[in-house]
Amino acid sequence: MKTWQRSLLLVAGLLLVGTAAYAQLPDPKPHEFPVVGNRVAVWVVAQLHILFAAFILGAPIFVVVSEILGWKNGDARYERLAKEVIKVTVILYSMTALTGGLFTFVLLATYPQLSGWLITHFFDIFAIWYPLLFIAETIVLYLYWYTWDALQGPLKLRHIALGVLLNVIGTVTLFVIDGPTSFMNTPVKSAEGLDLRTFIETTATLWDKMNNFSWWPLNIHRLIGNVTFGGFIAGLIAAYMYLMSKTDEDRAFYDWFGFVGNMIGVGALLLLPFAGYLLAYELCDYDASICPYMMSDQLSMFFEMQGAMVGLIFLASNYYIWLSLKRVEGLEQVRMRTTTLVLMASIPLVFMLIWTKYPIPEPKAFILPVCWVAAFLFAGKFLKWTVPAQTLVKVAFMMVIIGNAIWMTPHAFVATQALAPDDGSLSLPHGELNLGFITVDWGMLALMPAKNAAAFTLVFVTICNYILYNRALRKGRILWGKIDFVSQFVLIFLAFSAIWTMGLMGEVRSLTRKYFHVFNLQYDFTPEAYTPTLAFSSWVITGVTLTFYIVVSFAIVLTLRVGKGKAHADAPKAVPAAAGGE
Amino acid sequence: MAGERSFIAILIKRLLLGGFAAVVLLILTRFVFHFPPVFQAMFVLYAGLGTVTFILLDAPAVSPFGGVKALVALVVFYAVLAGTFIAGANFLPQYDPMVEKGKIDKIVKPKLAATDKGKMDALLKRSVELNAQSQAIMKRLEALGGADKLKAAEGDKGGGGDAPKAAAGDLIGLGKEQYDLQECYNCHKIGGKGSVKKRGPTMDNIGNLMKPEEMKEKITNPRSWMAEGFEKEYNKKQMPDKYKELMTDQEIDVLVAYLASLKDASVETPKPIKK
Lengths: 582, 275
Known about the structure:
heterodimer; A: two-stranded antiparallel ribbon; two-stranded antiparallel ribbon; 8 strands; globular; B: Cytochrome Bc1 Complex, Chain D, domain 2; about 5% strand
């Protein structure tokens, strides 16, 4: 039986058994999951499912873009890259179905009342739309894979169209299942003044429930997150294959593969802080009590950890660019404008002051930063002073560290603000400095304007480094396959850290429902309705990440190493290759 | 790039620079900004992170290796990553779930068991009735000029009048408990404790500014009143409109009783404006 047949059978089985299980409701007793308990069991299975699903939704976006680039540029490397990534995706598709099925069973068995309630309210989604989309995606994915060699040459456009269709279905599937997920965080309120329960139980339509407060922010956040994830996992695949390469040709190819994967991952990553901010903003706008719960109460140290992870990811991605730069011959000739360097160094302080004085979304909060950047770009046209590329990169690293320090500065080093000692021994003091147009208070380092300025700094610095890299490519010669071996561990680190952070923030989103299964609507009556500690969470998240890694590593080795004898596109021959002549 | 210089020389230079940065940061945070030790340590750690980063930037390239060596390196790398992330998360301050568990039990249990809820409701009702009765008796005594005698008698008996006091105290105590359970402190301040950001007004003198029925109106319908100087927060609908649905009448009543008892005129409390 082929993989696609197994997947279809699994989905059909799920539908049948799931419906039968639902028929056993409405008053079944919850089962106790052995050893770890019900909450951790659902947590682990759901998180694993989301990781696999994120990959099989993110990777095809990456693959189709790569296929299009290969087709347009006539570069065989893109074709090979796309084919190798989709090969791993096909294997992991079965794991997505398997963990999805497991998630359904565990949820039904351990939280039968909640499952029954959700099925009642989203019956059409769970019983019709989601299975249909999943089946459609299965069919198109396997069509896309099995017609790869057949639809070449003049038929290539048809194959690309299949890939685009696959992504459209995948994205719609994501949006559809985000409906119930986001509903659990922000169940739609009545515009006519009905109380929440009456409205949801009697008047609200399925569309009302889907189109809730956090649906679109979650859709956007997950879509961008999936592309990031796909890029970093592609980087991981490249790193593994580089480690196992025996020839210079293979090393050259997987070096380039890793670079492309990282570039896509980082490119999408630049948007993630803003998408995350939008989601958090909408959650707070829905119910202001969520905000302090996240930022100054039980989850405050989760965000401290997130700050550390984001800082490490940006440091690592910039370090990878640096290692990539080091193997470009002629880097010494590349110079950047001094104004860019000054602009980069000024951003954390200037933007923090602007956003403190004019908080987002006031118009000046957008106009002033744009004017500030434009002024430096304009000045750069006249002031011809330049600095070597290495100097700019080193200042950039300094700014990443400063940006991360600002991101991670809390009001107080306490698990919740309510526990902050009165003597201020663990709190950021309030020391004021009058600058004329604004009074600076050290306390502002812990506020959102400072965090936004820090996020913007990290993004700006990374963009500058990529601009510098492209300039170096135009002027010099790149030696594919000659990158520092450490870079492969940087790629592995990036994938591992991205997955870990995804697990952490997924937990945060879920925990913002507090002691409700559905916020303000369905109480969690189990003894596990409390917020777990960050320490405990870190064990679970690490366990899930390692499990995912073991499966993915197995899939990579199985498909790309063991099955290497099978035909694939030609490997690039040029080592070294002219950097500008790609 | 390192160029002709040896890595050892670069390493020493970076360590010296990193050490210098750490000392400068320590002096600034300790003697100029007067940050507490934990923040001083944080900034010194950043100097350490910067030092490691800048050493890595100029570290010599590692040549490729494969086979068992690569596999072992990979396993060790994963172990280090997993261990570092877990250690980092454990190093940060931890919230005690038992605190929240106690709160959740108090909120969720009455909702779960209707019988328990009924008992609690009855107790609360009885407490309110006793409080009303005690206040009525006090008023009658005051009208008869017996309040002073009663106070003297209480003094003589060492708390002989505890019953009515306890009832009123219980009510306020229950109200304070509701204030904590609903986490009102996240947006409001009482006695200097509470919200670190400007989300909602200070409540210390609210008992002198609003009548109990007006407070109840504000809690159940946040759009009905606005605190002076909180126009932006009012327009952003910062105060959730969920309490009418999530709290019982009795819970709101005891919360109002607690708020009505807050009459510290020395603390500036924004004036409520009827909308």
